[in-house]
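Batch manifest, entry 17 of 40.
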Amino acid sequence: MSGLVERLSGEYAWAIWLAAPLLITLFASLWMWWRGRARGVPAAGSAIKAHHRYLDTLSAVAASTAQPSRPAAYSAAWSPTEPEAASDEPAEDGPDGLEEPAKQETLESSS
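Output type: structure tokens
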């Protein structure tokens, strides 16, 4: 038996080193094929129940994200259901006929 081990470790060491990655790759490809194979057609009742569970979960998530939480002051000051009151005054136009941009206070002008 020791002669076989010496022969395998000497003459065929290169084959053993090349066989290890080959076997690992073969095993990985078989595992991926097994995991990715078609499962077949599920029973109608279980498929419908699974679909209803999916829709229930989807509607619960949609309902929870439909109204994002806002600070109370923001919600009281502005409501998306009430339109803003239109101003009766005409907009001030600049010399080129376009509306003047709002004046912004900068750090330089505030000091």
